[in-house]
Amino acid sequence: MPHKLTDKGQATRARILEHAAELIYTKGVHATNNEQLRRAAGVSGSQLNHYFPTKESLVLAVIAWQAERVLAFHRSERFTCFDSLNAFRDWADFYVAYERAYQEGCSLGSLASEIIKTDLDVHEELAGAFDQWRNIFRDGLQRMQRLGSISADADPTRLANLLLSAYQGGMLLAQVARDITPLKDALRAAIDYVQTFAMSPQADVLQAR
After folding, report:
1. Burial environment of residue 40 by CB neighbours within 10 A (0 to 12, 13 to 18, 19 or more)
2. What's the pLDDT score for residue 53?
């Protein structure tokens, strides 16, 4: 966020980012141009250039904006820091129950699929966003180990990679099929595997779906 922006300036910048993210999602990075963005966001060329003088600066800001939305949701109190199997089940159930999940897809994943096709120098920032997301899961799994909920044999980093990959892959297949089932199966299979490391499986049995 640029320094010393007024409330109005912050609102204008946020509006530009929201419309830029939508245009990139629907049209792609290369097909999104300043004229389209100016019309969609209702700003002038000088305003757009003031906040984002280059396309790279715009894409970097969109990455940060989308990442913050995803990360804030996963860091919210509803998932209690992902330090229990129930927290992971609640996370999976949220997306399975969200009726538009397979239509909207993953905002950050969709952005990534567009950006990796370009020659913009933003891959490091995009990778960093996914690292932060994965680390939310990893940190929760590490806490579960410290609490004695899962065994020391579990590898929190590998399990976190599995959970994030299950979500991204399941969401893509759900979008293709226009059916939430692939996402549901992928997430529940991943959490079932985490369950195999539970120290007291009798006390935390997966509910029949």
Report:
1. middle
2. 92
